[in-house]
Write a structure and sequence with these properties.
Organism: Sphagnum jensenii
InterPro entries: ITPase-like_fam (IPR029001), RdgB/HAM1 (IPR002637)
Family: Belongs to the HAM1 NTPase family.
Order of helices and strands: EHEHEEHHEEEHHH
Protein name: Non-canonical purine NTP pyrophosphatase
Helix content: 25-40%
Number of domains: 1
CATH architecture: Alpha-Beta Complex
Number of helices: 7
Keywords: Hydrolase
Distance between the termini: 15 Å
Length: about 190
């Protein structure tokens, strides 16, 4: 079984990686490394820089992830700034921003970057959903999770999905497209050359 190192402190992201990769006979090891993320508008540049910094800190091939949230009615807000927004906003703030807006669509842009010192490969996946008009569920880390329903989640907010427990979360990632699926296809083809 091949092993990849995933630089993240986020246990939910680690669960996603392990769930998808184990299905394809890839072991994922968590790499604890503190990475200062650059700020900017382009999520691809951000995730590539993050991969380079993680590789420099670990000196071994590594995968990093970064998400960017896009609310079309708010001109793409909050984009790659969700980590900062999570510190400033509560779910009610998202609801106030969306008050009176008919287009309540939201897009989660998932990005992964693999870097081994010479090969940089970026994988992306878009998950569509909507911002609902009331908060449902509980999640202290990210207030948008209580007001966001993503496609394939049967009308549940992200927070409500996680409240169902690890088994439900694992099932979610086995049946829904994810950037990790693109990674495993590429990685398996590269390691079998």
């Amino acid at each position: 079984m091949d092993t990849v190192y995933f630089a993240t402190s986020n246990q939910e992201k680690m669960l996603i990686a392990q769930t998808v990769c184990s299905k394809f006979n890839i072991n994922v090891e968590q790499a604890s490394i503190d990475i200062d993320e650059i700020q900017g508008e382009d999520p691809v540049i951000i995730v590539q820089d993050k991969a380079r910094r993680a590789y420099e800190g670990l000196s071994k091939p590594v995968v990093v992830s970064d998400d960017s949230w896009d609310i079309p009615a708010l001109n793409g807000f909050p984009g790659p700034y969700m980590k900062s927004i999570n510190k400033w906003f509560h779910s009610d703030d998202f609801l106030r921003l969306m008050k009176g807006i008919n287009d309540r669509s939201i897009i989660l842009h998932q990005l992964l970057a693999y870097y081994d010192g010479s090969t940089m490969k970026v994988f992306s996946n878009d998950i569509h959903g909507k911002v609902i008009d009331e908060s449902r569920g509980k999640n202290d880390r990210s207030p948008n999770m209580t007001v966001t329903v993503l496609d394939h989640d049967n009308g549940k907010t992200i927070a409500e999905v996680f409240e169902q427990g690890e088994k439900a979360v694992v099932e979610r990632y086995l049946t829904r497209p994810d950037a990790w699926h693109g990674f495993v296809d590429w990685f398996n083809s590269e390691t079998k050359k």
